[in-house]
Design a protein that fits this description.
79 residues, mainly alpha, 4 helices
């Protein structure tokens, strides 16, 4: 617990988000296992397919301005 308290807010937030995501995957896997016995050859879906159907990937928007993007593309570092 002391380790978590010593983290920056950003790192602690990322760690918490990862823990929530892993818990969500565990619960979804349990649901998939319950459904597993009722799948047929035609209706079978892998866990990954099932998970993505329930939780589609989130699209992250790039919030940088044009100059920052161009600097990265051209290999210039801002100092």
């Amino acid at each position: 617990m002391q380790y978590i308290m010593s983290l920056s807010l950003k790192r602690a937030s990322k760690l918490l988000n990862k823990a929530v995501e892993e818990k969500q995957k565990e619960e979804t896997y349990a649901l998939w296992l319950v459904r597993y016995s009722s799948y047929t050859e035609e209706t079978f879906e892998t866990f990954e397919e099932f998970y993505e159907k329930l939780y589609p990937p989130k699209i992250e928007m790039d919030t940088r301005n044009k100059d920052e993007i161009m600097s990265e593309l051209l290999g210039k570092e801002e100092r």
